[in-house]
TrEMBL record, chain A:
Coiled coil: none annotated. This is Penicillin-binding transpeptidase domain-containing protein. Residues 157-479 form the Penicillin-binding protein transpeptidase domain. Residues 52-136 form the Penicillin binding protein A dimerisation domain. Residues 242-262 are annotated as: Disordered.
UniProtKB/TrEMBL annotation, chain B:
It is a multi-pass membrane protein. Residues 452-472 are annotated as: Disordered. Keywords: Cell shape, Membrane, Transmembrane, Transmembrane helix. It is found in: Membrane. This is FtsW/RodA/SpoVE family cell cycle protein. Pfam families: FTSW_RODA_SPOVE. It comes from Streptomyces castrisilvae. The chain crosses the membrane at residues 23-40, 52-69, 81-99, 124-141, 150-168, 188-205, 226-244, 250-266, 271-289, 360-380, 392-414, 426-445.
Length: 486, 472
């Protein structure tokens, strides 16, 4: 009986060997993959095991915090100060529902698990101190953010404000908003709050400033004007243009209308922007052709996702046929832009044609406040020559001085802007979007460019206009930035 | 091979007894367990556990008694079996104690049963009873061949044990428990020993008939019905009972035991082929009507699939077990510092290996698996060394059953094969398991003692030499 016994011994050896092979596979080969699976609660337990680092505005004021909880799994819970106001900046970090935006992108620093913090972790292991997360210092200006959020009030809409000289994002508001603190934990109340937010018809968790694209309406005429100047179609902004009235859309039997009886026939560029002439800018777009319009829009940042580092959806200036291209030139048809994108347009004009890469993380810090990353300003593109930019500035300043944007005037400050009322819906049946883009200028260049969109308000359809609804908000934001610099 | 000397009736004269080797290894096994206990206390509460002295003293007492009994009643026994079993039992106690401290499991028990009661003290009590059983077996069973006399009684007892749970309510989906007042036992664990005794006794008598008086059928040698009939009936009966009790791990164990012992007894490879075919047919057959099995096969194929559908819970246990192995990595998180308690239900029973995997890492897992491997191979070595066919069959059956049990549990927990609830011998929480496995080790030690004991001086008659039966 010894021969079969030896074979049984080998068989048992094979069984044990199979187990050894399997454990090697699981614990060595697959370990990393298993450790980062989203189903793995350890990831979240680890994330909330220590006090999370903070997100900082105004160069030192923290808008987040950590609270110790009773929960057996998660020791700390994230809390936010002025949650609804800052939510479009911070995103959320919930024990039960994951994390988004800065809370998610900068999770490594905030939890202290990032490789850049390896030295700190090792030190706290030796000293026995509790591990802590690092901080994220943002470029946000709380005065501007408050002005934007208060300005939007109970209207649906968004505001994006930039520093044209650096690309720093100064304000990023979106309404209606939500308070991430209501579902940061792991309790039943958190689940209820979360589900209520998901069901809300107004979609409060959408970041309208970065993720929602709207037809930009007349504010896009600034880009069309830039294309006309850059391509040499017109060089003198006060010379008559070749613009008949009525102007018929190409390949069509339909005339392009203006809003009311305004003097648009052969109007100069300055006057056309001042009165917001559809005929003039529709014709410019058609004269230049689709490709040149796309090229200029691309230089302003269209057709590309932008990472601030939070991702902003791509704004679209599409390839299109002639009549559609003409419509896109006045910000209608399938032309769509995010508020951030339109703020970039205004900031490029304000910064003499130089568009800076928008960003909101200025610094990353270790728990001991040592700086491990410092943002260096970076040029995005040059959509305009300095000369043409100054021409466009004059045009936009005329709009605010004597045109449709007078409501944005700030005493003692030069302000340039452009209003927009974008129609949308089937046969334009829905309430139009009110837009306003603008910049302010002081002796030392422009400190702020801002884009405001009001998606929906309780105002009557006739009362909705960029100048009436959006411009006062832009004015408040610009004023807040200028005042905080004093 | 050199072991040939042990297969004749003349053993090696004055083989060393190796009792001091065993003592050294016992000291080592207990020291490791106590060190582990201290380690858990330091990691979880920042101080040495208060029960450390009692625990250490208990282990030393149990191990010491076991060692002294072996020294006295089985002086030539294999020196490795007892220390290996002690080490596993000691580590198992630490693991169970560590899981007792988990706030997650405590809260779970409070919600589910209204109160939490720690399992480690109960397991320590079971271990003490287990060692007492070990001592009793060695003291009462002077020679393993006595068990031959109880061939059919073993069979009857095994069947009764297997049938009984049908009359008791099912616990967590399987009817494998007999509850008597505060105690409950899992008869399957004891039945595996009894069935091995029955198979050994029966096959020893019938092995020649089974091997030689067979007909060739489609290239396979099939024995006559009257030889194979009884054994196949008993075997089929026990499998059927287990299938109805949905104790699939144990039915797999019985099947493997049957094939292994038949193969060893008849030396016919065709039994292996036959066994594999039958197990394939059986597996497909059972899987086609048992929803319990189907859900486990689904969870095995893709342990993470149910997270994306609505069926989470169907695979949550197995996926959590796999993730705990993954998070252990090469060196583990250290005693008391993992999150294997996320598995929840059965974390300290069927799934105790996940805690080993997470907290001791790949290194600890390999060590534990090799300890099991060593126990199995020492058992088969005992079978090789045994001089009587009954002892050979019994030792082979018990070690084979042990190996299959380890493979089925560990393989199930690690996602190598579908899960089929059984306990990790010695490591897992459970009274029946600890008791039965100590009895199993006692029987193996008894057989190895008989096998390695120096033969009495050969008879002076020269005829004795010529009447020997010499087997290849």
């Amino acid at each position: 009986m010894n021969k079969p016994l030896r074979r049984i011994a080998i068989f048992c050896g094979v069984l044990i060997f199979a187990l050894l092979a399997r454990t090697n596979y699981l614990q060595y080969v697959q370990a990393d993959e298993l450790n980062t699976r989203k189903e793995n609660r350890r990831v979240r337990i680890e994330r909330y095991a220590h006090e999370r680092g903070n997100i900082i505005v105004d160069g030192g004021k923290s808008i987040t915090g950590s609270k110790e909880t009773e929960d057996s799994d998660f020791k700390y819970k994230r809390v936010w100060k002025d949650g609804p106001m800052w939510a479009p900046v911070t995103g959320y970090s919930s024990q039960a529902f994951g994390a988004t935006q800065l809370e998610s992108i900068e999770d490594g620093i905030l939890t202290g698990n990032d490789d850049q913090l390896f030295f700190n972790r090792t030190m706290s292991m030796f000293t026995g101190d509790e591990e802590q997360g690092g901080n994220i210092v943002t470029t946000l200006n709380s005065a501007a953010q408050t002005a934007a959020f208060k300005g939007l009030g109970n209207k649906k809409g968004a505001v994006a404000a930039l520093d044209p000289q650096t690309g720093a994002i100064l304000a990023l508001a979106s309404t209606p908003s939500y308070d991430p603190s209501t579902f940061a934990g792991n309790e039943e109340a958190d689940t209820k709050a979360w589900q209520a937010l998901l069901k809300d018809k107004d979609k409060p968790m959408i970041n309208r400033a970065l993720r929602e694209t709207y037809p930009p309406g007349s504010t896009f005429k600034v880009v069309t004007a830039a294309a006309a100047l850059e391509n040499g179609l017109y060089t003198d902004i006060d010379a008559d243009t070749d613009s008949p009235l009525p102007w018929r859309l190409p390949q069509s039997s339909k005339d392009l209308d203006n809003e009311g009886p305004i003097p648009c026939k052969n109007a100069s560029l300055r006057e056309a922007l001042r009165y917001s002439c559809n005929t003039v800018f529709g014709k410019i777009s058609d004269d230049l052709g689709n490709q040149k319009m796309i090229d200029e829009a691309d230089k302003f940042g269209f057709n590309k996702e932008i990472f601030t580092p939070v991702r902003s959806n791509a704004s679209v200036y599409p390839e299109d046929n002639r009549p559609q291209n003409a419509m896109a030139g006045i910000g209608q048809a399938s032309n769509r832009a995010t508020p951030l994108q339109m703020a970039m347009v205004a900031s490029a004009v304000a910064n003499d044609g130089k568009l800076m890469q928008p960003y909101m993380v200025a610094q990353r810090q270790t728990p001991d406040l040592d700086v491990i990353y410092n943002h260096e300003k970076e040029e995005f593109s040059r959509p305009l020559s300095a000369e043409n930019a100054q021409k466009l500035q004059e045009m936009m300043e005329t709009v605010v001085k004597t045109g449709t944007g007078t409501t944005a005037q700030i005493p003692g400050v030069t302000v340039g802007g452009k209003t927009g009322t974008a129609q949308h819906g089937l046969n334009n049946a829905e309430k139009p979007y009110a837009w306003f883009i603008s910049y302010a200028k002081t002796d030392s260049g422009s400190p702020v460019a801002v884009a405001v969109v009001v998606e929906d308000s309780h105002a009557d359809r006739e009362a909705i206009s960029g100048g009436g609804l959006a411009a006062p908000i832009a004015k408040a934001v610009m004023k807040a930035v200028i005042d905080s610099k004093k | 091979m050199s072991v040939v000397t042990n297969t004749t009736t003349i053993g090696a004269i004055n083989a060393p007894s190796r009792r001091n080797t065993e003592l050294m290894m016992m000291v080592f096994a207990i020291a490791i367990s106590v060190f582990a206990y201290a380690n858990v206390g330091l990691a979880m509460n920042g101080k040495l556990p208060s029960g450390m002295f009692g625990y250490g003293a208990g282990l030393i007492l149990l191990g010491g008694v076991a060692h002294l009994v072996v020294r006295k009643f089985a002086p030539y026994a294999d020196p490795l079996l007892l220390p290996l079993a002690t080490l596993l039992n000691g580590l198992g106690l630490v693991l169970i104690w560590r899981l007792d401290q988990s706030p997650r499991l405590i809260r779970r028990a409070e919600i589910g049963y209204g109160a939490f009661s720690p399992d480690a003290p109960k397991q320590l009590l079971y271990s003490a009873i287990g060692v007492a059983l070990f001592v009793a077996v060695l003291m009462v069973l002077k020679d393993h061949r006595i068990l031959q006399r109880y061939t059919y009684i073993s069979m009857a007892a095994a069947l009764v044990l297997l049938v009984l749970p049908i009359f008791f309510p099912s616990v967590n989906g399987a009817k494998i428990w007999i509850s008597l007042g505060p105690f409950s036992i899992q008869p399957g664990e004891f039945a595996k020993i009894l069935i091995a005794i029955f198979f050994s006794g029966y096959l020893m008598v019938k092995r020649d008939a089974l091997a030689l008086a067979s007909r060739r059928f489609m290239g396979l040698y099939l024995p006559r019905g009257r030889d194979l009939g009884p054994i196949i009936t008993i075997w089929a009966l026990s499998i059927l009972i287990l299938v109805f009790e949905t104790d699939l791990g144990t039915s797999l164990l019985f099947f493997g035991l049957f094939v292994i012992m038949l193969y060893v007894a008849t030396e016919r490879t065709s039994w292996i082929v036959f066994g594999l075919l039958m197990s394939a047919a059986g597996a497909v057959g059972v899987a086609s009507f048992e929803r319990h099995v189907q859900s486990r096969v689904t969870a095995w194929k893709d342990p993470f699939a149910c997270y994306t559908t609505d069926l989470s819970g169907a695979c949550e246990q197995i996926s959590n077990a796999i993730m705990s192995f993954g998070s252990g990595g090469t060196l583990g998180s250290g005693w008391g510092q993992g999150h294997s308690d996320l598995i929840g239900f059965a974390a300290n029973a069927d799934f105790i290996l996940s805690t080993v995997g997470e907290e001791l890492g790949l290194a600890g897992m390999m060590a534990v698996l090799l300890i099991y491997g060593l126990i199995v191979e020492r058992g088969i070595r005992t079978a090789l060394a045994a001089r009587d066919p009954f002892g050979k069959l019994l030792a082979a059956g018990l070690s084979g059953a042990f190996a299959i049990q380890v493979f089925v549990v560990a393989g199930g927990v690690m996602g190598l094969i579908p899960l089929s609830g059984m306990t990790m011998p010695f490591l897992a929480y459970g009274g029946s398991s600890v008791l039965a496995n100590w009895a199993l080790i006692a029987i193996l030690i008894r057989i190895s003692d008989t096998a390695r004991r120096p033969a009495p001086a050969p008879a002076p008659s020269t005829d004795a030499e010529m009447t020997q039966v010499v087997r290849p």
